[in-house]
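Cross-check.
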Amino acid sequence: MAEVFFPNSCTEQAIFNFCDQVSQHSDADELLINFSNLGRIEPFTMVYVAKFIRDFSRKNPKVSMSAIGHHEKEYAANMAFFRAFGLKHGREPNCTNGNGNFVPFTILRVQTIVDEASKEWDVEQNIIEKRAEQLAQILSRQDSSHLVDALTFSIREILRNVFEHSNSKTIEYCAQYWPAYNKVEIAVVDNGIGLGASLKNNPFIQVDSHCDAIQQALMPAISSKNYKGAVIDKDDPWHNSGFGLYMINRICRLGGSFTLCSGDHGIRLDESGKSHIELAHLCRGTAVRMVLNTNRLTKLSEMLSQFRDEGYEVAKQIKGVGIYTASAASQMLSRDFK
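Predicted model, tokenized:
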């Protein structure tokens, strides 16, 4: 029997190393996951690991998986972490929200959004907007504020990305607000085609690796659906501008951080700069971690106007924008920090 210990840290590298270790045992008859070291656990850890374990189990059905050391981990159980990957302990995903500033592990079917829109004679993006605002209000315990506006925008744009680009049948998310630390974390994963496959729909984008795809996706005005020659309804208030991920990462970088993973690569952005993450396992679909510093949030319309103008100016400085390349994307991200 092979045994892998869950880390006692919530850092991204610790979580990725754990997934790397699990992936190395695809030929084992039995695999035991030991959760005895699990201490503090955060939203990204839960959605990323739960999805990874499920994907590993589906890909390696002959590996018999079991767990120990999880029975006393009440917070993770209350957030529906264990049930999310099939371990019969704690609450089920999609459970009723508790009294704290958190949103438990939720698995939202994309078809549910479509059905709600049809029932209400509305467009899907408006349904996503309503859900995003509800989540923002749950997290903040406020009906309206700069925090609610920033959270609504960030959650909405990530959910829209999954809905409009990923071809995923589900959107999985989890979130927590720590008022004492002025910190909010929102984590979202999908089971879709990934950024590389999505961006290849744009003939003006050169994508040779998962790293290329992530860098391109973080550039302003880059989209798989918005490019010269594409059919775009300019009168549609929800038409895709390609600024969603760029705007979100700018908001998160105000004292927080933004991490985007797809395939075998990840990129983390914060005030200090950009760091690349090489994954020894495969992140199927896309995973996003948004950490916001609530002390740094101001009026949303003013923040977005500033970021949009700065994004356009930085993009103009990049030569050869006829075909967006990985090097151009890298230059843009570097200049964006100056």
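Residues 146-166 form the longest helix (21 residues). Confidence is low (pLDDT under 50) at residues 224-233, 235-240. Passed to J.P. for a second look.
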